[in-house]
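Quick one:
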Amino acid sequence: MSLTAVVWATTGGLFSFGLAIVVLRRQLLAMLLGLELMLAAVNVSLVHHAGMFDDAEALAVVALVIAVAAAEAVVGLSLILRMRRGGRGADAALLTELQG
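Output:
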């Protein structure tokens, strides 16, 4: 089995697992974790591509994806904490409408 097949299997498994978490879980923190797993799978794939083809632009995209993932984690966690402090639980079913 070649390295490329191992990388594709690993990234496919990580992405599928993250997608399953996002679709099947109702807690917002678990959904955020699933999104982070999917972004990690994309990063592994891009790093492998950059190593195979000596592609510096792919490494730049990896840095951009890491920055976006960090910003998404900060915003998501702050929203979850705000919901918990406001007396509502961190369940996705409670987010049926926007409230001020």
